[in-house]
Amino acid sequence: MEFNKQDILNALNTITEPGAGKSLIESESVKNVVIFGKEVVIDVVISNPTLQAKKKIEVEIMKVIHDL
Fold first, then answer.
1. pLDDT tens column, 10-56
2. Quick check: 44 and 31 in contact, CB under 8 A?
3. How far is CA 50 from the centre of its chain?
4. Distance CA 52, CA 45 (A)
5. Which of 27, 32, 38, 47 has an alpha carbon 20 to 30 Å from 15's alpha carbon atom?
6. Bridge partners of residue 40, in order along the sequence
7. Backbone angles phi, psi at 25, to 5 degrees
8. How high is the pLDDT of residue 64?
9. DSSP one-letter code for 46
10. Structural contact between residues 68 and 37, judged by C-beta atoms closer than 8 angstroms
11. Whole-model pTM over 0.70
Protein backbone atom coordinates (compact mmCIF):
# COMPACT_ATOMS: atom_id res chain seq x y z
CA MET A 1 0.00 0.00 0.00
CA GLU A 2 1.14 3.51 -0.78
CA PHE A 3 1.27 5.92 2.14
CA ASN A 4 0.83 9.65 2.00
CA LYS A 5 1.73 12.15 4.69
CA GLN A 6 -1.90 12.95 5.55
CA ASP A 7 -2.69 9.25 6.16
CA ILE A 8 0.25 9.08 8.56
CA LEU A 9 -0.75 12.28 10.37
CA ASN A 10 -4.34 11.05 10.73
CA ALA A 11 -3.07 7.79 12.23
CA LEU A 12 -0.74 9.63 14.63
CA ASN A 13 -3.67 11.78 15.76
CA THR A 14 -5.14 8.65 17.40
CA ILE A 15 -2.11 8.21 19.72
CA THR A 16 -2.07 10.05 23.05
CA GLU A 17 1.24 11.35 24.35
CA PRO A 18 1.97 9.86 27.80
CA GLY A 19 1.29 12.44 30.51
CA ALA A 20 0.09 15.12 28.10
CA GLY A 21 -3.50 14.00 27.62
CA LYS A 22 -3.38 15.17 23.99
CA SER A 23 -2.68 13.36 20.76
CA LEU A 24 0.79 13.49 19.24
CA ILE A 25 -0.56 15.93 16.66
CA GLU A 26 -2.39 18.18 19.16
CA SER A 27 0.66 18.40 21.41
CA GLU A 28 2.85 19.15 18.36
CA SER A 29 5.13 16.23 19.23
CA VAL A 30 5.49 15.13 15.61
CA LYS A 31 8.34 17.15 14.13
CA ASN A 32 8.81 15.45 10.78
CA VAL A 33 7.27 12.73 8.59
CA VAL A 34 9.23 11.42 5.60
CA ILE A 35 8.04 8.66 3.30
CA PHE A 36 10.46 6.68 1.10
CA GLY A 37 8.35 4.20 -0.84
CA LYS A 38 7.18 1.73 1.81
CA GLU A 39 9.46 3.13 4.52
CA VAL A 40 8.15 5.80 6.89
CA VAL A 41 10.42 7.89 9.12
CA ILE A 42 8.77 9.89 11.90
CA ASP A 43 10.55 12.29 14.25
CA VAL A 44 8.69 12.57 17.56
CA VAL A 45 9.64 14.59 20.65
CA ILE A 46 7.74 13.77 23.85
CA SER A 47 7.89 15.52 27.19
CA ASN A 48 8.17 12.28 29.20
CA PRO A 49 11.84 11.21 29.00
CA THR A 50 11.41 7.71 30.47
CA LEU A 51 12.39 4.72 28.38
CA GLN A 52 9.00 3.15 29.11
CA ALA A 53 7.15 6.16 27.62
CA LYS A 54 9.42 6.24 24.57
CA LYS A 55 8.96 2.52 23.94
CA LYS A 56 5.17 2.79 24.38
CA ILE A 57 4.98 5.55 21.77
CA GLU A 58 7.27 3.65 19.40
CA VAL A 59 5.12 0.51 19.61
CA GLU A 60 1.88 2.46 19.17
CA ILE A 61 3.24 4.30 16.13
CA MET A 62 4.40 1.06 14.51
CA LYS A 63 0.99 -0.52 15.16
CA VAL A 64 -1.06 2.30 13.60
CA ILE A 65 1.26 2.50 10.59
CA HIS A 66 1.03 -1.27 10.00
CA ASP A 67 -2.77 -1.07 10.30
CA LEU A 68 -3.03 1.48 7.44
1. 999 999 998 888 999 999 999 999 999 888 999 999 988 899 999 99
2. yes
3. 17
4. 14
5. 38
6. 35
7. -75, -45
8. 95
9. -
10. no
11. yes
